[in-house]
Amino acid sequence: MCCPIFSGVMFFNRWMSSWARASEDLFTDRNEINSETLSQAIRAAASEEPDADGSVLFGQLQGTVVGLRYYTGVVNQGEMVGLVREPQNPYDRNAVMVANIYGNQVGHIKRELAAAMAYVMDNKLAKVEGVVHYGTKNKFNMPVMLSFWGKEENKNTVVESMLRRGYKLNTGGIKSAEAFLCFQLKNAFDNLFEGLMESKDGEKEAAKSVATPLLLHQKQALSWMCSRENKCTLPPFWEKRGDLYYNTLTHFSAREVPERVRGGILADDMGLGKTLTTIALILTNFHNGKPLPVEMSVSVNNMKQCKCGEYTNQNASSITESPEDLSARTTLIICPLSVLSNWLDQFEQHVHANVKLNVYLYYGSERNRSKKFLSSQDVVITTYNVLSADFEVSRGSPLHGIHWLRVVLDEGHTIRNPNAQMSKAVLQLKAQRRWILSGTPIQNSVKDLWTLLAFLRLKPFDVREWWNRVIQRPAMQGDRAGLQNLQTLVKCITLRRTKTSEVNGRPLVSLPEKMVCVEQVELNQQEREEYELARNEGRSTIGRYVAEGTVLRNYADVLAILMRLRQHCCHPDLLAKISSDLGAAATPAELRERLVEKLRLVLASGSDEECSVCLDSVCLPVITHCAHVYCRPCIAKVISTQQGTARCPLCRSDIKETELVEVPLEEMEDESSTHAKKWRTSSKVQALMGNLLRLQSEDRSIKCLVVSQFTRFLSILETPLREHGFSFVRLDGTMSQKKRAQVIQDFQSSAANSPSIMLLSLKAGGVGLNLTAASHVFLMDPAWNPATEEQCIDRCHRLGQKRKVVVTKFIVKDSVEENMVRIQRKKQDLVEKAFGSANTDKKTSRIDDIKALLEL
DNA sequence: ACCGCCGGGTGCC
DNA sequence: ACCGCCGGGTGCC
Question: Is the pLDDT of residue A268 over 60?
């Protein structure tokens, strides 16, 4: 009865339930363990295993594992073991159990030592890890090397507490592990997915029910996905040695085949057709490698109702080492709300019209919660939010009660935080096969990967301890082998191609040509005068800061001055009346008000401000008293790491958590001021209108994107568009999902009366935004970050684009806009230098950089 | 015989 | 466990 998979799950479960530290009996008969405890245990493990960040090694100690003869768990030389407190043990409440990777109990820690360890473990003063270096063949007890890890501030307490009970931690020869912040290793991780691009062998034709012919690289992906689902290849780091299976990283071995991972990560760049490939997978690879049996309607070629590729049970020769539930039919797709409609469209588009595929949208208050109904569908689509809401409300969440054939996570990086409700809900779904679709599987650090691997049930790393010990901590500390292992791991389960990848020397997708041209705009006399006035004012302000040596403290002001110049280049009415400099603030309330105002200025302009800690666009923006903008979590991390002596990473001023200021929620952009005044034009507006009118006269079917970082500029542009009778829509970040979807659908429509222009805010919409109806892009103002512009252009220059794409960038001659790209590069250098060291002699060079940046 | 010594039973927590 | 420890049997050499 003990089939390999099953017993594996149960050992695993036993291990997990001990983690849960619940009152569950550790010695439960294996057969009684149900999936309910398993899921509880997974949740417990995810929340209880602390993040290994900033842990240092306190010391090591040779201990003894006793009672070996009572348990079945064996260990190999060099194997890692887990130490689990067992407060419910009837013989000793200090008991510490020793278990191997699969959770098979090996023995206990000797009583006296256990008493000393129990204090340290129960008070979470240290995490204790064990490795057995020798004596693995012993009958009664064996030595174990114990390593104590924890926060620096607990080191002395732990060392002394152990010493009091007669155990001396050996601290000699341990190099103190430095605390790393995640951004320092960002580059190493950026390269993690390199080298995954080589084409994996073979290609596979999709089932007949797929209407769209697959491109070569999509056939390759399909082939890879099918083999990941069907073949019994060993997971990474497992080898067969004799009749045992051996894990080369943990040195664990087992008689049973390690549970295979049926699925993986499809990490292709967006636009390569992850959605189509997944639809093809669903239709092509049902049980035993046969296509999904679907009904064909009677309509075309007097075809009878037939089962397209009905599956038989006999052709099991190649696979089925492990039995599977052949009655499972349904694929569950979970995606962010923003791409829900895209999935529905794509099913519509890519499945043959005469095929009856049951796709159910599990969404909205009227959703059908019947398990029987849901599990009879071919596909159920829902969102992360619906899934986690169901999960939270009741234990009887219908989606959690079904054994899915396959679960697909679209934009899978959504679950990178293991503590999020969403992630917990996703991890507990029951499925035979699991897939993650993501263009960006790693966003900031290796930590992002754990939930993904846990979802895939990649043994043994789905248990946080093994992940932390074997992969995350070594990688975070820059250990080469650690990074290498991480890469190997990822490589085995991931397929990633980028738009620039090639197959047989040919690009994966051939997109229509893209032409980028810069159109210089000359300011008229009045505009030029106003611009020069502002420029001189800014120059003198910055000159003063340079003289005072306070440039870095007034960093936000420097940016604000640049901002005003950029606004001048677009339209005079963009300039908000921003008064004052920071120095004049009299009261704390006033200072706060000023800071809020500055922050708002930086944010509302859509200037794509980057956080200097994570180097990404700021999320949850806060401003420091020295007026630098960061993500709240990033700067909070810096402050907590530096413990009371925290300094601003950009200007080294003292900063405190309590002094971080954010924009009050009710602050929304005030549109009324622009409408109050009488509308006027500008040189840039004229330049745009000239182009639009010319295009319209050439070809009425051409559609355009008009892009700006300033949403107020978009508002200004509405007036002349209306005047000339253009039909247009607008998409910006403030719009609800529903409105957005409507706007996109209208714009993408090829109907004769559909809008021909979309006013688009540069940062609006996620990466998935598909605007292929447009073939002309007008970038009204240059962005700090050229990548942002590229992304924006890619929204129409992507798979599905039929026309040649023409991009026009408007740049005002003799203005700050001409320097934007150079400034961007300088800014990046500046940030790097700021983080390079806290050394003061670097300060001068940074000020020089700013001077150069402003051509002073 | 309130000890020492012998040898069998026994053995995690 | 080819140990240590316990506790019963035993007792000059």
Answer: yes
